[in-house]
Amino acid sequence: MTREAQGLNGLELDVAVIGAGFAGLYALKKVRDDLDLNAQAFDDAGGVGGTWYWNRYPGCRVDTEAHVYQYSFDETLMKEWEWSERYPLQPEVLSYMNAVADKHDLKRSINFSTRIVKAEWIEDLAKWELTTAGGQTFRAKFVIEGVGLLSSTKVPSFPGEADFKGIVHHAARWPDDADLSGKRVAVIGTGSTGTQMIVELSKSVDELFVLQRTPQYVVPLGCGPFPEHERARIKEDPAAFRDWQLDTAAVFGFKEATISAHDVTAEERERVFEDAWQNGNGFAFMLNTFSDIIVDEAANKAATDFVRKKISEIVDDPETAEKLMPSDFYAKRPLATDDYYETFNKDNVTLVDVKEDRIDRILAEGLKLQSGRVIEVDVIIYATGFDAITGNYLKIDTTGRDGLALADKWKDHPTAMMGLCISGFPNMFMIFGPFSPFTSQPLVHEWQVNWIAGAIKETLDRGAGSFEVTQKAEDEWVKACDEVAAMTLFSKTDSWINGSNVEGKSRQNYFYMAGMAQYMSDVKDITDAGYKGFAFG
Ligand code: N01
């Protein structure tokens, strides 16, 4: 374990960037190189990558197509970078991020192994004072938090954990030296992480127990070599390719469907779903088959009936198939993993329904369920998700104007403006914070960082000490977000998207669900109106 570098005490920065993942790397580049400000970044990790640094579990790959999941600011790199697969594995994504950081000489401005634990607004100085886990303090006029949407891990606590004689891993803190071949392994959790890992582990472990609480709809991913036609399209005109992507609702590399599931015959619906299933990609299955899957209950049912039918066709054992079939709406973050349902036909894989028979406690030899059944394993893996969206910000003890603690502000019903700012916390910006558009991330990070850089420049050009959104503007933004989200079925299912996966967390909408094109237009209107709803102090 590396320790944080010394020498930060007393440092005075224009901008402190927290995080060196997709968001933080570009923010650093933008403010340091384009705005020519004195900026440094800080990351708990020992290298760049953010989520792609930490998530090294077997089978980890990006389930968004590679050409969408990359930066666009460096058009030369866009043309030159050769993705090997349509959905690259984690090491390839991480090597891409290292290549970006090296090409733009970013690492010299990043303090690795340095966790920021505290941020306090000093009113008299109009600056933030930041404290590291090692107790060093320094100041910055502006703070940009690129701390990730899904980085605050959620690990349930079961009685008897200390008794376990085997090994415990969390998927998002995977050690490089983990060797599970020939072992008996239990995976708790069947979200995106769990499903990817389950398929991969089933190839090498002796016995795999999949502890599933709530089944989800899993469509194939459609892995394969990177498509040549996409490569050609990027090389021809990278900027046009980027602009085309941003002008969609979800920025997943396709224009969303415009035809209702009700406007076609049952046979045609079946054909559309079958084509989407064969092509793979969870977001395409949800958003590019029919326009109303996520807003209309009957359209949603057509999609869920199709997936349930696939499960019954693929899974040999009818009882296992039944347990794998979800019964809620298809309105969570969509899952896509090749061979997921096929994996349950393997002799070394056992599905355990822990909703029906809950995990009671951990024993020395494994897990005991409420029925008294004992699952003997050598390894327990938590793929139990994250305190998403807000959890990452709350890990930093943040105090804004007039002693307002972020933890208090967000205690009952978190609010924020455009996913970018929080009233009461001047000169502090978030990248992909709460109430950001519900989209793929890297291109949207860039768009948001460009906006942040514009706001910083405007503040400096005006000779102002602070830039802050008003509570009124923030409340209006959140109200508008709530109204759109209430029209979708996402509000009727339980998932990290509405905070219902974390006990005690406010169950509410946390996204702007009107789509990226509309988001850009709304933010532009506010900006063009002289930053309407913001105050320069
Ligand atoms: O987390 P999740 P994730 N006992 O919250 C179960 C991104 N991602 O890490 O549904 C038993 O989706 C929980 O059960 P339930 C992506 O955005 C991207 O898988 O609460 N089970 C659920 O099954 C994704 O959406 C990629 O009943 C418990 C699972 O754990 C997001 O990360 C890859 C439990 C958690 O699922 C989060 O995915 C991976 C308990 N006490 C992830 N507590 C890419 O490909 C929780 N569970 C880019």
Automatic annotation (TrEMBL):
UniProt keyword Flavoprotein present: yes
Sorted UniProt keywords: FAD, Flavoprotein, NADP, Oxidoreductase
InterPro entries found in the cross-reference section: FAD-binding_Monooxygenases (IPR050775), FAD/NAD-bd_sf (IPR036188), Flavin_mOase-like (IPR020946)
Domain of life: Bacteria
GO MF terms held by the record: flavin adenine dinucleotide binding; N,N-dimethylaniline monooxygenase activity; NADP binding
One Pfam family from the record: FMO-like
Keyword NADP: yes
Protein's name according to its UniProt entry: NAD(P)-binding protein
Organism: Maritimibacter harenae
Lineage, highest ranks first: Bacteria, Pseudomonadati, Pseudomonadota, Alphaproteobacteria, Rhodobacterales
